[in-house]
Specification:
With about 260 residues, the chain is of the alpha/beta class. Helices cover about 40% and strands about 15% of the residues. The protein is built from eleven helices and ten strands.
Length: about 260
């Protein structure tokens, strides 16, 4: 493992690993988006340290729990309103555009990779997306503005116009099964890559955190860029503990 020393040396090693790669994959966590002003739910002082997350089964079972969930959702949207992709997002988008990176696997639900210019079909969202809602029965998509207007006037819960099913934000909640399609795609991309770059993830939330080790065991090089240490640092070929946007900007030409 090569730990970050000087900014110049770690940046050069990172550039060399990218130059020697023909099929890289980026894996991102909350640390990429905190620089856009989006809070990390799991960190000390984060939202989940102040209020317990709502379990999926409780959401499905209880109308009152669903009202609480939607109330929290719209309050959180007020906090996140105006969040824009940052330098880190732009650097990742640049790597995708130049075909250095073949896919972006993300634990994030904010849609900022797509907003930064990464094509939607290159983004694999393991925990879903909070920028729209879907029916739990038939997967019909619903836009949040329409749901919010009705909820604020009457606190009416959204119901699917197509099948009458429960409508929920398109995120994966506690107690909800991980999405099979994205998980299979993420595993496939991980096994096919020769360089796996984990950015802004604590690498403690499984099964998502299993992908870096899967890549490493399959012969890929592993880079970890995170402000804090992670449990997988010892397995990495390069570890950089730094602010994510500035660190990537030293390595990747921005568009």
């Amino acid at each position: 493992m090569e730990k970050s020393g000087s900014e110049n040396s770690s940046s050069q090693i990172f550039r060399d690993l990218l130059a020697g790669s023909s099929r890289a994959v980026v894996f991102t966590g909350a640390g990429v988006s905190t620089e856009s002003g989006i809070p990390d739910f799991r960190s000390p002082g984060g939202i989940w340290s102040r209020m317990a997350p709502i379990d999926y089964q409780d959401f499905v079972r209880s109308a009152e729990v669903r009202r609480e969930a939607w109330q929290r959702k719209f309050e959180m949207d007020d906090t996140m309103r105006g969040a824009q992709p940052n330098i880190g997002h732009a650097a990742i988008a640049s790597m995708v555009e130049r075909d250095v990176v073949r896919a972006v696997i993300t634990q994030n639900i904010d849609g900022l990779h797509q907003a930064s210019g990464v094509p939607a079909d290159k983004v694999i969202e393991l925990h879903g997306n909070t920028t729209y809602a879907t029916c739990l029965e038939c997967a019909e998509r619903y836009e949040l503005d329409d749901i919010k207007r009705e909820f604020e006037v009457s606190r009416r819960l959204p119901v699917c116009d197509v099948c009458g099913g429960i409508v929920k934000t398109a995120t994966i909640s506690f107690g909800q099964s991980m999405p099979l399609g994205p998980m299979e795609r993420a595993e496939e991309e991980t096994l096919e890559c020769d360089l796996f770059i984990a950015i802004g993830s604590s690498l403690v939330v499984y099964p998502a955190a299993s992908f870096p080790l899967l890549a490493k065991r399959n012969g890929a090089r592993l880079v970890i860029l995170n402000r804090e240490e992670t449990p997988l640092d010892d397995a990495a070929d390069l570890v950089v503990h730094d602010e994510i946007g500035p660190a990537l900007a030293r390595v990747v030409p921005l568009n």
